[in-house]
Structures are given as C-alpha cells and as structure tokens.
C-alpha cells in the first residue's frame, strides 16, 4: 500500500505540472494577442495550436492517471481478498475425529483403514 501512495502522489504531481504548463500557454496566448495586428494573428494561431496541444496532453494524462488508479485499486482489492482467503483456509482444522468414526460407521468397508 505504500507503493500505491507513492504512485498516486507522483501522478498528482504530474497533473499539477501539466495544468501549470497549460495555464502558462493560455496566459502567453493572451499576451501574444495584444501584440501588433499582423504578427498577432500569426502568434495567436500558433498559441492556439500550442494551447490545443496542451489540452490534449492534459486529457491524455488524466485518462492515463484514472486508468492507473483504477488498476491499482483493483490490484489492492485482489491482493487483500487473496490474503483474506488464504488466512481463512489456513485456519481450517482437520475434522473432529468423532466425525471420521461416524463416517466410517456409515461405510463398513472403511473400518479396516
């Protein structure tokens, strides 16, 4: 579970970095739009393309993070259930000897064993 916490923390840092980059691109776009009119059109188009690319990156990163978190949760649940199942069955004791005697009395051919 400590590994899961570390991975989720790294994922959150990645998301924050990507959001900061997108906000930086959008602010750069607004600054470029205030430049001269001819250069502003070209700069705005380039900035819009950069902002769109940044948004695509954010969406892809968020989808990947969600998938990774879901997989991590499934793995943790499967491991917990497996450990619980193994613990449960390791605690099961052999049947009471009286039960074996009763079963042997029902099947006379087993009495000799």
Q: How would you characterize the overall build of this protein?
A:
Keywords: Membrane, Transmembrane, Transmembrane helix. The longest helix is centred in the middle third of the chain and has 54 residues. The model has no long low-confidence stretch (mean pLDDT 72). Helices cover 85% and strands 0% of the residues. It is rod-shaped and about 105 Å long. It is mainly α and 113 residues long. It has one domain. The protein has three helices and no strands.
Specify the helix fraction band. Answer: over 70%
Work out the oligomeric state of the chains in this entry.
single chain
Radius of gyration (Å): 32 Å
Cα separation of the termini: 50 Å
Biggest beta sheet summary: none
Order of helices and strands: HHH
Structural class by secondary-structure content: mainly alpha
- Approximate shape: rod-shaped
Total strands: the figure is 0
Number of domains: 1
Helix count from the secondary structure assignment: 3
As a percent range, the share of strand residues is: under 5%
> Would you identify the regions where 5 or more consecutive residues have pLDDT less than 50?
none
Mean pLDDT, rounded to whole units? 72
């Amino acid at each position: 579970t400590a590994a899961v916490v570390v991975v989720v923390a790294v994922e959150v840092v990645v998301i924050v970095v990507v959001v900061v980059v997108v906000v930086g691109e959008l602010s750069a776009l607004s600054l470029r739009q205030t430049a001269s009119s001819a250069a502003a059109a070209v700069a705005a188009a380039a900035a819009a393309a950069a902002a769109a690319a940044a948004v695509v990156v954010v969406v892809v990163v968020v989808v990947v993070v969600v998938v990774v978190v879901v997989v991590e949760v499934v793995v943790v649940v499967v491991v917990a259930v497996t450990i619980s199942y193994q613990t449960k069955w390791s605690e099961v004791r052999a049947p009471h000897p009286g039960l074996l005697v009763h079963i042997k009395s029902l099947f006379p051919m087993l009495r000799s064993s």
